[in-house]
Each structure stands twice: as C-alpha cells, then as structure tokens.
Design a protein that fits this description.
Radius of gyration: 18 Å
Order of helices and strands: HEHEHHEEEHHEEEHHEEE
Helix content: 25-40%
Largest sheet: 9 strands, antiparallel
Oligomer: single chain
CATH class of the largest domain: Mainly Beta
Structural class: alpha+beta
C-alpha cells in the first residue's frame, strides 16, 4: 500500500507498479486519484480496481463499485474485468467526463476550497454561489467534417459515461464502450431557468430539455472566445483557447462486480 503525497504522485506510483509487473492496481480515492492511476494503465495488461472515497465518484458509480469500502475492495480483488473507452482533451486523458465552461469553473473553485469543504452538499453550494456571477462564452465546434457550429453556452461537457458524479446524469444515453463520446451543450440561459431544469440531471431527462443539444462524436475541435476554464474528470486545467478532443477506444480494463 502506497500513499500519495501530492497531485501527480499517484501516476508515478502506478508507473512503478506497472513496471514491477503488477496485474491489478487499486485506486482508493476520488475521480482525480482514479484518473492519475488509470492514465498509466492505457491499453496495458493491468486492471484497475476502485475504492471510491471522493465527492462525486462518477466512474465508480458507473461501473457499479460498491460505496462500502470493504465491499469495494472485495470487488477490486474478486470481481471481473470490463474494458471501457477513454477520452483525450488536449492530450490529457479522462475516463468519466471532461468539460469547458461553468462546470470547469466550479471544479476549480471547489478544488481550491477542498481543504475546507467536501461532499455533494458543499459542491452544490459552490454551484449556487457561482452561477449568478459566471459569464458564458462563445464556442465554435467542428465535429468530424460536419459544418462548423457556433453557439453561446454555459458549458460544454464531453462525457464518456452517463454522469458527472453523485447521480447527476449529464449524458443519460452515453455508453462506456461504444467508441464514442457524448458532446453535450448546455445553453447560456438565465440562472433561474437553469435552476428550474436542474432536476433533470438527477431524473435522467436532460434530453427532454429542447434547449440542450447532444451528439455522439469520435473527435472534435472547440475554439473558445474568450478562453474558457477546462477540466478532465473534475481536475481543473486552467483556461483553454482551443481544445482537441478524441475518443480512445478500448482503453482501460476496470474491475467490476461479478454478475449473480
């Protein structure tokens, strides 16, 4: 058992384990820690087990990892493997979701206050506080040879799984192994309108809001005016003027519960 000391250390530890011949690595942490470990396992023989202890636990929820630590550890050791896709945003790999705009802004604010606050309620408080002061930007989206799409958006989410975390399903129809990413555009609407539709995230009915547009992609280029906050798996990347996105098919072996 190795303990991380700082951001990025989990990747270093995972690399050492893989070079040492490990066939299974268990990440005990949130989506950020899981991302750091999984990034070293791309297309390799080693499997990833997850014991979720983060605020959202998006990937853990999607693969069915138990919330109970003992059961999650048992699943990591005794479960079965499933191969899932990944995504890449400007070369940074993600397994759950990446994004531009408001969700990335919230991730940055939350990360800077994480020493004081954790959990879903704290995250929701940050969202409510930041929403009324955030200014949506303009985006130019080019997808696989299709006509260029320009829009103003509160955020653009690129989802490999259905949810951000905590049961908030931004892309209810997304599949982890379909060699596609779901690009979801949330419009630049007044905050009160957004809050009136927030329930859709947890009901899985975002597609029922006609203002939201979703498309499945293999690759895309997005230009942001002004440069927009970006994140991968909830980890802030700073401001980005242009991002390139692509799917990485069959990228990772994850340990999931055995079917009964």
């Amino acid at each position: 058992m190795r303990l991380t000391r700082a951001a990025g250390h989990a990747t270093e530890l995972a690399r050492e384990a893989v070079e040492g011949g490990a066939g299974l690595l268990v990440a005990w942490g949130g989506d950020g820690t899981i991302n750091e470990v999984a990034a070293e396992l791309l297309h390799g023989p080693a499997s990833l087990g997850i014991v979720p202890v983060g605020s959202g636990n998006g990937l853990a929820r999607e693969i069915g990892a138990p919330a109970n630590h003992r059961r999650a550890l048992a699943t990591a050791v005794l479960g079965t493997d499933r191969t899932i896709d990944a995504g890449s945003l400007n070369g940074r790999v993600f397994f759950n979701a990446a994004g531009l705009g408001f969700d990335a802004h919230v991730a940055d604010v939350f990360a800077r206050s994480a020493a004081k606050t954790r959990g879903f309620l704290s995250y929701a408080a940050v969202v409510a506080r930041e929403l009324f002061g955030y200014r949506p930007g303009a985006y130019e989206i080019t997808v696989e040879g299709q006509p260029v799409c320009t829009c103003r958006a509160l955020l653009i989410s690129i989802a490999n799984t259905r949810q951000w975390g905590s049961g908030a399903r931004i892309a209810p129809a997304a599949l982890m192994d379909d060699e596609r990413l779901d690009l979801v555009k949330i419009p630049a609407v007044p905050p009160v309108v957004l809050l009136a539709h927030a329930w859709r995230l947890f009901a899985g009915s975002i597609p029922g809001w006609s203002a939201v547009k979703t498309q499945r992609i293999r690759a895309a280029t997005i230009r942001c005016d002004p440069p927009a906050p970006a994140h991968v798996d909830g980890e802030p990347l700073g401001l980005a003027g242009t991002v390139t996105i692509r799917v990485i098919p069959a990228a990772l072996r994850v340990r999931v519960p055995r079917r009964r």
